[in-house]
Specification:
heterodimer; A: mainly alpha; Cytochrome Bc1 Complex, Chain D, domain 2; 2 domains; two-stranded antiparallel ribbon; B: mainly alpha
Chain lengths: 256, 158
C-alpha cells in the first residue's frame, strides 16, 4: 500500500513537471486532417465553407440606408482592404477602450457607417461577412500584438483557457496543449487553434466562428457557455489568435 | 465534382466518430442525493452512501458514450466498442494492481492524484465545479450508485 502511494506521488510529480515545462510550437488544425479532407478544403468548389464566403461577398456590396456599402469604402471585391491588417485582429480600439475582433469591426461598419440592416454579433449575416473578409487574407501570417493596452486582455484570455469548466471539470489547455496529437475517442486532438475560423464544422454541419467553436467545447464540458460576442469570448479570442501567431490564415477551414 | 460525391460519406464518417455527442448527452439520473466522501492515503474506504456496486452495470456505464465514457480515453476489455482513446493508461487488469478503495478515488476525483489531470472528476463536490450548465447545476456527472457500479467493474478487471 505504502509503495503504491509513493509511486503515485512520484508519477504525479513527474507528470506535473513534464506538463508545466511543455512549450508548444503552433500547429494548424489543418495539419491534423485526413488527406481527403485537406484536398476538400483546398478545393474552392468542394469546400462547403465557401458558401458562407460567397454569401458574405454579396453582403459586402449591399447598400445600406446611408447610401453606402462596404465596397464604397473598401473597393469592389474589397480590393482596398489590407490583408496584413486583417491578420492582426483583435486590435485595440482607443475609442471603445477595449479589443475589437474582426467581426466586431465589421459590425461597426455595417451598423454605424453604412446604416445597413442591423446585424447582431451572433447572426448568420455577420458570420458570413467575417468569413468573406477573413478569406481575403488566406495564407497571411497571424500577427496579433498583445503588448501595451492589449496585454490585460491577453492575460484574461489565457486565464480562461486554463480554467476548468463545467461538470467535466477540465480546462482547454489540458486537451489542446498537453494532449494535442493524442486520440480522444477515435479523434485526434489538435491544438485548438483559431486560424481556420470561420470554418466549416463537420460535426455541426455548418459554418462557425471562433466564438461558436468555443461554445461547442464548453457544451461538451457540460458548462454554461457565454453569449457570442461577449467580453469573455473576446478575451478568449485575443489569447487564442495570439497563441497562433505565425500560423497562416486558413479560412474557411474544414474541421471537426 | 468528384469531391461533391464524396462529401456525404465524409459527413457520415465524421459524424460517427464525432466528439460532439461525447459528453453532452442526458445527465445521469439524479434522484439520488449527493453523499460526501473522505480521502485517506489516496483512498476512499467507505462506499458512497453505503451503496454496493454491480460490475455488470458498471461495464455498461464505462462503455457508454453519454455516461461514464471511460473509453474516450482508456482501453477497456469491451470488444464491441472499437473506438477508444489513449489519453489515459489502459485499464485492463487494473483490479489486480490497485485496491478497490483507491479505484474509488480515481473515479470520484482523479485530480487528487494529479492536479493537472485531464480525467474528469465524476463525483467532485458540486460547489467546486465552475460554471456548470444551468440545467445540470448541483449535480455530479455520475451519481453515487453509478460510481459504485463502475468501481465494482474496475475491481473485477483482474
Amino acid at each position: 500500500m505504502k509503495k503504491l502511494i509513493i509511486t503515485h506521488c512520484f508519477t504525479s510529480a513527474l507528470l506535473l513537471l513534464l506538463t508545466s515545462a511543455y512549450a508548444q510550437t503552433p500547429k494548424s488544425g489543418y495539419d491534423y486532417l485526413l488527406p481527403e479532407m485537406k484536398e476538400m478544403q483546398d478545393d474552392d468548389f468542394g469546400n462547403p465553407g465557401m458558401m458562407a464566403v460567397d454569401a458574405g461577398e454579396i453582403q459586402f456590396s449591399t447598400t445600406g440606408k446611408n447610401g453606402r456599402s462596404c465596397a464604397s469604402c473598401h473597393g469592389d471585391g474589397a480590393s482596398k482592404l489590407d490583408t496584413k491588417h486583417i491578420a492582426r485582429y483583435p486590435v485595440y480600439s482607443t475609442e471603445l477602450k477595449k479589443p475589437v475582433t474582426l467581426r466586431g469591426q465589421i459590425l461597426i461598419c455595417q451598423n454605424e457607417r453604412i446604416g445597413g440592416t442591423p446585424m447582431k454579433y451572433a447572426s448568420q449575416e455577420a458570420l458570413q461577412l467575417e468569413a468573406f473578409v477573413r478569406r481575403l487574407a488566406l495564407g497571411e501570417t497571424i500577427d496579433v500584438d498583445v503588448s501595451g493596452d492589449m496585454s490585460p486582455y491577453y492575460d484574461a484570455g489565457k486565464k480562461l483557457f486554463r480554467t476548468r469548466w463545467g461538470q467535466v471539470d477540465i480546462a482547454c489547455h489540458q486537451c489542446h496543449v498537453y494532449h494535442a496529437g493524442r486520440t480522444f475517442r477515435g479523434q485526434i486532438l489538435t491544438q485548438g487553434q483559431s486560424n481556420g475560423f470561420p470554418g466549416y464544422r463537420y460535426t455541426a454541419g455548418k459554418v462557425v466562428g471562433t466564438h461558436e467553436r468555443i461554445t461547442g467545447c464548453l457544451n461538451n464540458l457540460r458548462a454554461e457557455p457565454y453569449p457570442i460576442g461577449s467580453d469573455e469570448y473576446i478575451n478568449f479570442e485575443v489569447n487564442m489568435n495570439a497563441r497562433g501567431n505565425g500560423l497562416k490564415i486558413d479560412t474557411p477551414g474544414i474541421r471537426y | 465534382m468528384q469531391q461533391m460525391h464524396q462529401l456525404p460519406i465524409f459527413i457520415l464518417l465524421i459524424t460517427l466518430l464525432s466528439f460532439s455527442s461525447t459528453f453532452a448527452e442526458e445527465p445521469a439520473s439524479a434522484d439520488l442525493p449527493y453523499f460526501d466522501w473522505k480521502v485517506e492515503d489516496f483512498t476512499i474506504k467507505q462506499p458512497l452512501g453505503g451503496l454496493s456496486g454491480n460490475a455488470k452495470r458498471g461495464e455498461a456505464i464505462a462503455g457508454n458514450q453519454s455516461r461514464g465514457n471511460c473509453l474516450a480515453c482508456h482501453l477497456l476489455p469491451i470488444p464491441e466498442e472499437p473506438f477508444f482513446g489513449n489519453l489515459g493508461p489502459p485499464l485492463t487488469g487494473i483490479g489486480s494492481r490497485q485496491p478497490i478503495a483507491m479505484l474509488r478515488l480515481h473515479v470520484v476525483d482523479q485530480a487528487r492524484f494529479n492536479p493537472e489531470t485531464v480525467m474528469p472528476g465524476y463525483y467532485r463536490r458540486p460547489e467546486q465545479l465552475n460554471r456548470v450548465a444551468l440545467s445540470l447545476k448541483g449535480k455530479t456527472w455520475l451519481n453515487a450508485q453509478e460510481i459504485e457500479d463502475v468501481v465494482a467493474y474496475l475491481a473485477s478487471l483482474k
